[in-house]
Amino acid sequence: MRRYGLIIIAGICLAVLVYGHLHWKNISQAAGVEAREAAVKVIKEEKKKGEH
Question: Dihedral (C-alpha) 29, 34, 36, 39: value to the nearest 10 degrees?
Fold first, then answer.
């Protein structure tokens, strides 16, 4: 019985680690997209200032 408890706990820990990794990966990708969009916006604003 004790052995099954350890297997269950190990399974839960593994699931938490996998879920956390996927969640962190999605957050990192979203941050990258936002950074690219912000960079494009800054470049457009600089071009507008350069034209005037």
Answer: -160
φ, ψ dihedrals at 43, nearest 5° = -65, -40
Long-range CB contacts (within 8 A, 24+) of 6-13 = none
Q: What is the 3-state secondary structure (H, E, C) of 1-26?
A: CHHHHHHHHHHHHHHHHHHHHHHHHH
For residue 36 the two structure tokens come to 């690219």
Q: Which of 12, 42, 21 is nearest to 50 (CA)?
A: 42
**pLDDT digit string, tens, across residues 1-52:** 789 999 999 999 999 999 999 999 999 999 998 999 999 999 998 888 876 6
What predicted TM-score, i.e. pTM, was given to this entire model? Answer: 0.58
